[in-house]
Amino acid sequence: MVAEELHFGRAAQRLLIAQPALSQRVRRLEKELGVLLLERSPRRVAPTPAGRLVLAEARLLLAARDRLLTVAAGATWGGEAALRAAVPAGGPTGFVAALLAALDHRLPGVRLHLTEAETAQAVRGLFDGGLDVAVLAGEVTHPRLLVHAVLARPLGVLFATGHDLAGHAEVHLGDLASETLILMPAESVDPLHRAVLASCRQHGAALREVVPTRQTEVALALAAAGTGIALTDQPPPGPTGAPGTVWRPLIGTPLWRTLSLVATRPTTEAAIDVCQAAADVLRDTLGYLPPPTADPGPVTTGLPRPSSGFLT
Questions:
Q1: 3 state SS of 47
Q2: What pLDDT is attached to residue 86?
Q3: Helices 119-128, 49-76: crossing angle, 10 deg rounding
Q4: For residue 220, which of 204, 201, 236, 207 has the smallest C-alpha distance?
Q5: 191-234: per-residue pLDDT in tens?
Q6: How far apart are the C-alpha atoms of 288 and 90, rounded to whole Å?
Q7: Within the chain, which residues score under 50 in pLDDT?
Q8: Which helix (H) or strand (E) holds 173?
Q9: Spatial separation of the C-alpha atoms in residues 210 and 207, rounded to whole Å
Q10: Which of 152, 255, 257 is nearest to 203 (CA)?
Q11: Do 286 and 257 form a contact (C-beta atoms < 8 A)?
């Protein structure tokens, strides 16, 4: 935690312990290992070269511990399969609820430990054994990952019912000039932010402001309050949608939300079943389709890549 925060005080706050106690624990660990893990000065804290090596190994150990606990918990459930899965932050509205309902009906013997993670974070989890399955934002390929399916859906705009654009049957990217847009944060590895801004510039839409949020529910609430316009999939009808808002398809340069359903190699039958259930929910419930275009050739970095003509 200190290596992540580069600050003892902030790390102690996240760990909910006193700063002196954290400092003592780090010193005991350094004494036990016989190496200096952190460089300390009044202005900064940073891992030493030895600290960076130990940190990498510690993450693998912690991931293995979590996996062991999951396996042990599965044994106490009478042999039920226990899988660790991740979904993207700010993912499609209604996806998680529909996925859990589908799994409860189709795979009652599978216990799913679900977490929310950005693409790079989820890929690291798949590599180090902390995750079995992930729904990744973007199109991702890697020799160590089994890509079960890649699906996409065009994005539209969501705004308050009293907005000037509410009377339009569809909205052009150029219509967003001088609007406040609600988007994933710029520092996020999700490619939505940069792709949207690039498309807006291409169509001469100079945005007034960008309000960052990773949470779909927050984006919907901000749009309903008239704070700005959210780029999102078409929300489901009824009370599970976004009351007080209007959704319209976006025309101009199409922007697509692309999702990859992946599992680790080697994988298990339960992991494949979860990927298939997720693919069926995306296709049958949320209207996702194979991407309209794709760049040829594999990507070996394990990170998302932009594809010409649509948003990954």
A1: strand
A2: 92
A3: 70
A4: 236
A5: 556 667 667 766 666 665 667 676 667 777 888 888 888 877 76
A6: 16
A7: 76-78, 189, 239-240, 294-312
A8: none
A9: 7
A10: 255
A11: no
Residues 157 and 179: beta-carbon distance below 8 Å: no
Q: Using one digit for the tens of pLDDT, what is the confidence trace for 238-273?
A: 544 567 888 888 876 667 888 999 998 888 888 899
Q: Which helix (H) or strand (E) holds 69?
A: helix 49-76
Q: Name residues whose C-beta falls within 8 Å of residue 110's C-beta, 6 or more positions apart in sequence.
A: 80, 81, 82, 83, 103, 270, 273, 274
- Residue 43 amino acid letter: R
Q: Report the candidate in 219, 162, 163, 225 with the shortest Cα–Cα distance to residue 196.
A: 219
Dihedral sign for Cα 212, 14, 130, 57, please.
Answer: positive
Whether 85 and 46 have beta carbons less than 8 Å apart is answered as: no
